[in-house]
Amino acid sequence: MTYQSLQTISQIIMATGLVVAALGGFGSYYFEKKQDLKKVTESKPIIDLCRRGISVKEIDNKTVHFDIPYCSGKNTNAHNVNLLPAVLIRINGKLKVAHPFSDDFPENITLSYETGKAMFFNLSPLKISELENLIICVKGSYTNESASKTFKVLDIYKFNSLEKTWVRTMGTEDKDIREYLNDKKLL
Question: What is this structure's pTM?
Fold first, then answer.
């Protein structure tokens, strides 16, 4: 074996090493991007009230119209969305069902950040002055894009008379309402 043949063999080994290193670098880049894409598509979508919030209009002196819009979070869409609204009323400190959970929300829809859907219903007899006594509950479920995970929804809102907006219940009040819904077998 001559020095020239050993030099040729060394060059072939180096060229092979460079090709293997290039393939390894490309594979690392490619599979990192695939993993990042999988994280984005499998992240938990979040649904909530759209920015405009719940709106309530008095149709006449005995009827009130409710509009409850829901949207998805900014980075992921929610799929197979099924939501049911209910309205509770507080009379003398005790809760009663004014409007039971119903299927007014379109079934199995997809919510995005830009596109929301709303639940509409009218309550009668009810006066707009009685909003402070109402509790709006929304229950249901939705899935991620691949439908491999299902997420439950139970949102509870009350009317804030100072700001004239609907806000989430919190603390003991929220816990008491959830217990009431469980006791009445509404969940």
Answer: 0.71
